[in-house]
Here is the input.
Amino acid sequence: MKTVLPCCGAVVGTLLLLASPAPVRAGQEPPSAPLAPYQRLIETVAERHGLDPRLFAALVETESARQSGAVSSAGAVGLAQLMPETARRFGVRDPANPEDNLDGAARYLRWLLDRFRGRVDLALAAYNAGEGAVDRHGGIPPYRETMTFVTKVMTRAGLRRVPGRTPPGPARLVRRPDGTLVITNRPPRADR
Here is the structure.
């Protein structure tokens, strides 16, 4: 014979209510959670291609909000939202596969950083709007989506500007003598 305690239902209900995530209003971003299932893969792929893992993770977070099955209205696919032509160009066999997608995106971002001489802002703008748009505008295109994208990725990667201070130059990747990569906005040192 089962014994049911009348208070148990209320206790369990209260515990379930407390364990539920807070509601998110329409148009409001959910609180950022770590890229848990993909974090190690993101770090590994970033390091393999000479990228700062924070920058690459911020790009992935901004592009897909950690949704490996994401497909944009423009046809971009996966965690890093690769367009089909970009995926083909960088040898991605299956853009829906998280590992293939991230590897192709890292190769593309590395190529953009090299093309724009380490200028993180221009590489991100080109990732979002295409390198042709950056070339045509001689910098970050004046598209709201692109400007928002660059700001979000750089902020998530920790590349914020200090209020009241103008950085001496645009953010760029630099390899230290010990081989580590850092993001800096200091001007390059002149060779002596």
User: Anything to note?
Assistant: Residues 1-33, 162-168 have pLDDT under 50 and may be disordered. The beta strands are 172-175, 181-184. The first strand starts at residue 172 and ends at 175. The chain has one domain: 36-160+168-184.
